[in-house]
Amino acid sequence: MNKNKQPEPPKRYPKGLAISAAIIVAILIGSTVYFQNIKGSYEKKIENTRETYISLSKNADAIEETKRLRADFYKQRHYLDFPLEYSFTAADFVRELGLTAAAAIELLEVDIDPVIQGLTFSLKGQIKAGDNIEARSKFREFYQALRQFENMLHIDSSRVNAKPGEKKPAPGEKQVRLYFTIDGELETW
Amino acid sequence: MIVLIIIYILLYLIPSLKAINRYKRQLKDMNLKISDFASMESDFSFPDERERSYFARADRELSGKIPGVRSREDFIALLTKISNDIQKLAEKDGILNLVMKPAEGQKSAPGKGFPGRFKNVKSHTITLSFTGKIKNALDFINHLPWSDYYLSEERISASAGDLFPYYIVLLRVYYIDLQDQASGVEKNNRENQESLVIDYESEVLLNRIDPALTEPFPKKELPPGSESNIFARRTAFYKNSNKPK
User: What is the DSSP code (8-state) at residue A153?
Assistant: First the structure.
């Protein structure tokens, strides 16, 4: 008999592992319950909010329809009135130009185009004067007068070009011609 | 165990977190909508009988002005009527050398911006060129759209002329193409919706229409102006070598 034979060590069940596994499973179950609770509470909140939303939105269709009718009304009034407003404002603008322009100012071309609730204009003209300073001073006076128009939204004169006459002027004839272009926008009356 | 944890994370934890985020967003959106609705409803005035009559009147006025055109003959008849009316108006206002013709290269185009109910609105541009004293010409321009049909002026040009200034007015004639309407062609409708922008969130649309805004633009005559010709004489202008560029 082999007395030296040592008894087999007891099988080492991973006790620690089992405990860890149990803890992990418990954590997983706990987190599952926790997340389910959160999801459930959100679902409940969404359900309650949806009920409120549905009760409030009962009038939404009627409100949207009324807004559409009002928008259509404003469009229709715009289409009915704008041609009259535009033609009156355009004609009145040219009339006022006549009242504003001094004797030395001659218009060469006026272009007027409609824009929503207004019009844009481009004005080309010339000023005959004895010298450059006189011409520019007359132009400035005319430009400032245009700026004072009640319905003027903006005005700009990017091109002002004074040129001396090429021929020797006849006695009494002005020596300088100043060509100008004025662009701007007016509100309709 | 690790496999179990991974499976748990993949199959439960991640989808749960995604779902919670989705719920949060959904709830936030609904609460925002509710607060919008609540504030809009508190500010909103539902239409009364008077406002409904404004809607009906504007609709009637505009539809009464845009004639329906079923055929080419109808279209020619419409243009002839407009042309005769303009001729009479020109004579009355002392206009000289009136010439009317279709604008160059112009075909009937969709009439943009009309409310959705006005389907297949089209327009045709004609050019009026004329001369005359400034006062007469301006009165004529002012009188042009005062008619039973729907006209709108586009570009108005006045330039130096021989004796009087020379005027060009582009006039747009609107009509409803009944042929297209019958065949269900509504290709211009999208353009109709896009051209005149309306802000449907505007507070103006929450309130009843102000009665003052329902009044049509009054027909106004021009006040007296300067009788002097502010336009250069064309002869002088063209003889001048320093023409503006």
Answer: E
